[in-house]
Amino acid sequence: xxxxxxxxxxMTALGxxxxxxxxxxxxxxxxxxxxxxxxRRGWAALAWRVAETVLGGWAVLVVVLLxxxxxxxxxxxxxxxxxxxxxxxxxxxxLPLFAxxxxxxxxAGARRRAAGRGGRSR
Length: 122
Fold this sequence. Notes:
The protein has 122 residues and is an all-alpha fold. It has three helices and no strands.
């Protein structure tokens, strides 16, 4: 049985509003932090920012999964468990790889900056 067209449109609009609200909150936070110069720095700040981003993104995903499960699809309970477990597994794989790639990118940038100044990097 297909859901009514009005329900599909309402769920799509809700998803769009959720996405735009998340982006707006992130932009407002970035502007606020840019104005503050006495913020946290170092590894603790990086770990906090990464954890905040990962958990916030996962929470948005959970809301989308629940909205799809209850609002549009008539699926069994295995769908929710699979969606939550699958996204958690993806985070467990992608987060370390992303951290490694970011670290390499920063190291390469530091080398380029040092070479541009005529100095040697170690």
